[in-house]
Amino acid sequence: MSDHYVKVKVQLEQMKSFGEDAEKEGVDTEEQLPVSSPPASVSPDPSSTTIAGRDASNISITCKHRGKSRTKQGKDDKNSCGKDISDLSLHGSVVSAHDGKNLNRLGHERTLHIRGTGKILQGKSETNGNYVTIHASKNVQDMRREDGFKLPKKRRPVTVDTSKAKTSLEALKLSIKQLKWKEFPLGRRTACDIYWHGVSFHDNENIVSGQVNKFPGMIEMLRKINLSRAVRTMQELFPEEYDFYPRSWILPEEYQQFSTQIRMVKENDATVNPTFIVKPDGGSQGDGIYLIRDPSDLKLMAGSQAKQGVVQEYIQKPLLIDKLKFDIRLYVLIKSLEPLEIYIAKEGLTRFCTEPYQEPSQKNLSHVFMHLTNYSLNVHSGNFVHSDSQSTGSKRTLSSVLYRLAAKGVDIKKVWSDIIALVIKTVIAVVPELKVYYQADIPPGKPGPTCFQILGFDILLMKNLKPVLLEVNSNPSMRIEHEQEVAPGVFEYVPSPVDEDVKVGVIRDTLRLMDPGHKKPSTSQPRAAGFEHREEIPMEAETQERSPDEGALPSLCLKQVYPKYTKQFNYLRLVERIAALFIRFLGVKGNMRLGPTAFRTFIRTCKLSNSNFTMASVDILYIDITRRWSGTTPDSREAGNTHTHTHKQKHVYALKQKPSRRNNM
Ligand code: ADP
């Protein structure tokens, strides 16, 4: 058996066990109670916990949630920390470790302040100094009064580099203020805990620690062509599960298939008269979009210099409210790739068209205000309604729309769970390639930050209430102002309460979830080609422990959906295993492409070559594949929302016209 074979076998075994592990119910919260040497022996007595230690003044108690390799929650809580201790703050914040002085000052009385709970653990050392019995006691204020006990130093505020936040700056500032964290608007010479980028992972180069709010490669993965490809791969494997994405063809390469298929459909049934929407690859905010009824229209319009893009089946029967078409902007947080952690904002936005909807006909194809829901287009219609109310106007909260539907008898629970499924499945579709991008930018062994990202999902509800994915935005607008024409041709940004309510909540709660004080120290990002064997189950959004400073904050608006629903969706994570193989066979870490030699090795190791498929054919195949793909992966550093705003001109947008002013929402 060759070395390679053994390695591949091990890898496959690991993947198998990953699959099995991930299937397991993952309730594995851990309450750790590391005590400086020697190890602790802990009494399960809820009111009195005994810790064995040689030097009681050195006691350090850390209670962590969700560590790795642990046992079931209830059992663990009880055994290691005792019932009371399961109340401890999630970020391991029992304060005692370096409180030797304070403890000594109190003589034999040992007093531990549990951050976030206002509780005191009080202990007495035995004469031999080997045991400290601690028990829940009075609150901090009482102790302070009675013993002159000094409150432990406040946790140092989390630092956020906001120098590259661009249009999210206002909402970010408000969020940081609410959290009482520290903002660095001009960056900082020493490292920050969090870097907030307005466009891409590369906005600040050479970050070696902390967390960045963008993943490398996310912009590329979510461009219209790549998203369509990723979803199509999944549609081929799981057609029923991925029927929420309209049928799409990639332009120009699939123009022939598109044309032939539509001709055949029409020949088979003359009454079928579909409409298609053409979207340029790098476009956003309705930029360059147009509707067609026949493939030949596309050819005519695009001419010989066909641009890259997608042509997609147009959803002809959307759900209407007040006779208007609308779509949903949902905010989704990818908290971590490995293990995969997805959160959905419970509140989103809905964007309304400004002309009553009619099904597409040759006559109305160019009526943008009827067919396209983009804010950036409709805001220029005379009918656009700016409203401070959340339930009226051209931009409303998602909850107000759902309430309205519920009042009409719609089963909104079902709609919501279909939306959650759509989100999880879409993320599962893009994760494999995202991991390839990730390891290319932050290869194993290279110091780098960890990443998280807020995505904007654009979802349309069909008349039959089925949600349809339109696109995913890697840079959803986080603006909390909207433009208003204060005098003819003069525009000003004025506060938009609906945007502020939703977007500040999303940013603030993302920060709360990413709070380094709440995180375990272990890396949770994909640092190597293989999978982690155990899915890590983080805390539920609803049970996120608050630090004392967070006391006044509302409960989290972000709800964890993965791994919460691992059981239902894990079987779809098939392509990730192939991505793991690919990353493994890249040979050179920190790369995105398989070189010709690695490709040969890959074919040989997988025993794919034989007398009909020689190594010469392998080389030709390699050249073929790389040629085919060379045009489809533009450089990430070039991509992004790099437009500028101009207040001077006002264009009325028409289909196929370039908007001068951009705002994704
Ligand atoms: P952009 O990134 O330019 O906003 P989208 O894919 O979001 O591109 O499309 C713009 C708008 O066009 C959407 O907000 C929606 O109103 C409409 N739209 C897009 N795709 C479809 C579709 N397949 N069927 C019906 N309407 C669509």
Automatic annotation (TrEMBL):
It comes from Lates calcarifer (Barramundi). Residues 34-48 have a biased composition (Low complexity). Residues 63-72, 644-665 have a biased composition (Basic residues). This is Tubulin tyrosine ligase-like family, member 11. It comes from the Eukaryota. Residues 17-87, 632-665 are annotated as: Disordered. One of its GO terms (cellular component) is ciliary basal body. Coiled coil: none annotated. Gene3D superfamilies: ATP-grasp fold, B domain. One of its GO terms (molecular function) is tubulin binding. Pfam families: TTL. Residues 18-27, 73-86 have a biased composition (Basic and acidic residues). Keywords: ATP-binding, Ligase, Nucleotide-binding. GO terms for biological process: microtubule cytoskeleton organization. The keyword ATP-binding applies. The keyword Iron-sulfur does not apply.
